[in-house]
Amino acid sequence: MKNRLSPYYPLLPVFVAYFALFLVGRNVEGTWQLVATLLFYCALGQAFNIFLGMTGYVDFGYVAFLGVGTYGMAIAITGLANFPQLGLGIVAIGFVLAIIMATLLSTAVGAVALRLRGAYFAIATIGVNEGFRFLIEGANLWNGSSGMIFTAQLNEILGRDLASRVMTLWADILVLFIGALAAVVTLLYMKSKIGYALTALREDEDAAKVMGINVTKYKITAFITSASFAGTVGAAAWALKTPYVFPPEVFEIHYTIEAIIIVMLGGAGTLLGPLVGALIYGVSKYYLSIFLPGVQLFIFALVIIFVIVTFPEGVVGVIKRKTRNTAIGQYII
Amino acid sequence: MKFFSLKIILPAVLISIIPFISTFSAFAAGHGKIVIGHSACLSGKYAKAGEQAVGGIEACVDWVNNEYGGITLGGKKVPLKYKKYDCESKKESVTSLIGRLITVDKVDVVFAPYSSGLTLRGAPIAESHQMLYMDHGGANNKIFEQGFRYAVQTIGPATSYHKGTLDMVKKIAPDAKKVALAYEDSEFATMVMEGAKNHAEKLGFEIVFERTYPKGTTDLTPLLSAMKAAKPDFVLGGGHFEDGQLFNRQMADLNINVDCLSLIAAATLPAFSDALGHMAEGVMGPSHWEYGVTYSKEAAKEKGKQWIGPSQDEFVSLFKKATGDQKMLPDYHAAEAGAQVLAYVLAVEKTGSTDSDKVRAALGDLEFMSFYGSWDIDDSGLQVGHSMVDVQWQDGKRVIVWPESAQTGKPCYPMPTFDEKKDGKKALP
Q: Which of A92, B362, B375, B390 has the smallest C-beta neighbourhood within 10 Å, fewest atoms?
């Protein structure tokens, strides 16, 4: 029994951390919105890690998948507002739409950009978010530059009280589930043929090819999986939590940068890394903005430099190395 | 276990004690005072507007505490306190900080951050805590169509930006009929022009040209050439500073002369005239407030409205004291944020309570005037009392030309042609 379950032990600290966050948020007064922000960063990092961590490729256009996911939910709510009898079903349709849209976009981007490597891939993806934003604005898609504000429709569909709970609580809990699910998928990939193939291509893509691994297939699998999770994060953390979408806000590149920082701080390619990175990133940012409003970004830069210099492989990367072959080691990968 | 070294333990200990320190400081903060909480944009893309807003709020809080003597509540004078955090102009920070202001700092009212997007981001949190949420920087009318019960606006809605300009043209040039709208394809400019279009049609103007251009454009000549062919009497356009400047410059290059040109978010800035020199002469722009407006106690009395707050010059001096920068002048971001403090003070005094429901109801009935102008909201919380002012560049100076109650000079209409301006003609009435 122990042996059958032991590959899944690394999920334990992840689930414990998410559960602890939930308990803190619900029981310590005034912390739920902070926890919600941390959960967003955790889910963002966990989703991004599936691609960046496992392949070593840096996708600078990653925020575009969150953006289209937000639009997926927005389109479902605004388009089906006349069918209030669907109730929460509209939210479920929104998630399906968010996943479909993120999958389609990632397939299109991946089919072209994943033929490139390293810096060339990064350059090819850097314009995806801006390109998609300009497409929406220029072609006047989904209300173009005016965006969509749909709090009133959500109130109409769910009723004011339920809508309010969705915006201030359930959207965040959904983000928690998305983050946890992304961790499960990461582990399943790590323990399967996909994970071995991705590790091989991350270490040496040419060698992996020579060994007969279809690198393009596995890269696209990781890319689409990661993008689909991003779509659901956008749908829950942006469209449901605050029912509005303005193109410049949902395609802003700084979310990609934040995702990169979170994954690198925690440890790229590790299971627990994005969660630890998100907590360091989110907690430092939050308390610095409280104690040092106005100058926190400068101090924050120093904190990031300190962590990166102290933990060059990311915090979990270093812990993983130091605990190898110990009892703790089986929980940290 | 060597790995549990000081470098691991020290940060862990520090992180774990931070919440306790912050909870204690929050407890110590608001005792015996009325506290305004603000998730301010002190850094990030809205830092300039945020700095102005904070300066305006601090100036008016200073006035309330030191000139007005505090807020009268239950027969006592209670001081006003201002608690702010920096949201970095980011939506994730807005929700967490507003959550903290309400639940940890226990503030009595929350001031929204700058911009429509960030205002919308914080609104559901304030609503769920039944907390009064005052908007000084979100102009999008749709915020107030969402059914928020605790949101109240001080900034004028985007659709009202060009009302004054159109009223002015209608009054001083009844023969002008043809108007062109050419503006940036952005949420803000689109809403402004939607309002302008509706008001123009209501006044009987004919929209002979309407087209948008993408954000960040570097060439407007095709659009301007098409606009020239429509032969408008006057043009309403713009979006931001860069494109507004380009708009004016390329109109000069193409020698497109109209009787009046009004550009949003660009023409009111001193940098506009610095960059364009003579080409800026006669160009107008709408603003929520400009230094020089003539709103006063006497003007309020004439209109039968209650007056509160510092005079314009007092406000400027308090603003400089608050920012610690003697060279910085307040702009409309500062004025509207400051006026919001005054609205809150009056509403609390009127209802004799800081309870959000009661203060919200009192704000609904409130009508007053301050250095910022008139203040009045409709049932949804949308600002309907405040009028924009129109500024025109005359002989290198910004002159408030509309409305008549706030003007510091008469409008120059029609403005000189670009050839005349090149020859040194000034836009004087």
A: A92
Cβ-contact B56, B335 below 8 angstroms: yes
Q: Where are the domains of chain B?
A: 34-156+293-376, 160-287+388-422
Count CB-CB contacts under 10 A for residue B338. Answer: 33
**B56-92 residue pLDDT tens:** 999 999 999 999 999 999 889 999 999 999 999 999 9
Find the closest chain A residue to B123 by CA distance: A242
A296 chain-B contacts, CB cut-off 8 A: 43, 86, 88
ipTM: 0.89
Would the CB atoms of A33 and B124 count as touching at under 8 Å? Answer: no
Chain A neighbors of B123, CB-CB under 8 A: 151, 242
Residue B86 to residue A160, Cβ atoms within 8 A: no
Chain B stretch 35-54, residues whose beta carbon is closer than 8 A to a beta carbon of chain A? 40, 42-43
Which residues 199-228 of A have a C-beta within 8 angstroms of B? none
Q: Encode pLDDT of A194-244 as tens digits.
A: 999 999 999 999 999 999 999 999 999 999 999 999 999 999 999 999 999
Q: What is the pTM of this model?
A: 0.88
Question: Cα distance from A328 to chain B (closest Cα, Å)?
Answer: 11
Cα A128 from chain centre: 17
Domain that holds residue A234: 2-331
If one counts the domains in chain A, the total is: 1
Cβ contact A151–B140 (<8 Å): no
Cα A202 from Cα A209, distance rounded (Å)? 11
Architecture of the structural domain at B34-156+293-376 = 3-Layer(aba) Sandwich (3.40)
